[in-house]
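Q: I'm writing up a methods section and want to include an example of the input and output format. Could you take the sequence below and give the corresponding predicted structure tokens, formatted cleanly so I can copy it straight into the document?
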Amino acid sequence: MSETPTHGRRADYSGRSVVFAIYCVAIGVAGVMGFLLGMIGPDALRSVKLFFLIEMPPTPLGLAIYGMVTLATILGVLLLAVRFVSRRYGDRDR
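A: Here is the clean output for your methods example:
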């Protein structure tokens, strides 16, 4: 069989790299939303505690860091759990 020539560089994305890209975009969006919320600064906005230990001020930078770290931790734990389960139980059907 003849193969068709490819013009340019063909993108070969694996599932892992796509999930990582979505993970990074979601963390970036959380940071932007936290920054915008801190810029708007409602009067009733209080400081928040990161992991119930570190108090973050309700400034744009503080809320951006809080949102990014919180989302990165939660999604990171879930992604690691999915990776563990898929490696542990994924090859049983073969």
